[in-house]
Amino acid sequence: DYRIRHFALVDELPKLFREANVLYWAKALLVSRLKSYYHAVAGAAEPPPFNIPHVCFVEAGLALSYCQDSSKPASKAASVCAGFLLKEVIDGGDEDFVKYIHNMDPDPLLD
């Protein structure tokens, strides 16, 4: 029996903001490292004796759904009624795609 479940909004929003922030910083660090590698390889006399894997983080963003307070129809104020972490869909096409880490288990998927 598979059902999508979530925390209460007051508990879920801080978790979503934290995950979005971690993804932001992880991607920034990855891009920084990859630029260093590619710069070093471009300036080397010979290519390295190994392949540098092309790894990436999915694009993601935090989306908030706002609800109007029906008890105050003239009010322009709205409150957050749901939060979602939206992630891109990766279309592998003809290329091989390896997902090293997923949300259920922090161990790499190398086999």
Question: Could you please describe the fold and organization of this structure?
Answer:
With 111 residues, this protein is α+β, with helices and mostly antiparallel strands. Helices cover 32% and strands 17% of the residues. The protein contains 1 helix and 2 strands, in the order H-E-E. It has a two-stranded antiparallel sheet with strand order 1-2. The longest helix has 35 residues. It is elongated and about 70 Å long. The two termini are 28 Å apart. The relative contact order is 0.14. The model has no long low-confidence stretch (mean pLDDT 80).
Mean pLDDT: 80
As residue ranges, the low-confidence spans are none
Strand order, largest beta sheet? 1-2
What is the SS-derived class?
alpha+beta
Total strands: the figure is 2
Radius of gyration: 21 Å
Please describe the biggest sheet, giving its number of strands, its sense, and whether it closes into a barrel: 2 strands, antiparallel
Strand content: 15-25%
Task: Label the overall shape.
Answer: elongated
The SSE order reads HEE
Distance between the termini: 28 Å
With helices defined by DSSP (H or I, 4 residues minimum), what is the helix count?
Answer: 1
Question: What's the SSE blueprint?
Answer:
Layout: H1 9-43, E1 60-68, E2 78-87
Antiparallel strand pairs: 1-2
Features:
111 residues, alpha+beta, two-stranded antiparallel sheet, 1 helix, elongated
Summarize the structure.
The protein is α+β, with helices and mostly antiparallel strands and 111 residues long. The chain has one helix at 9-43; strands at residues 60-68, 78-87.
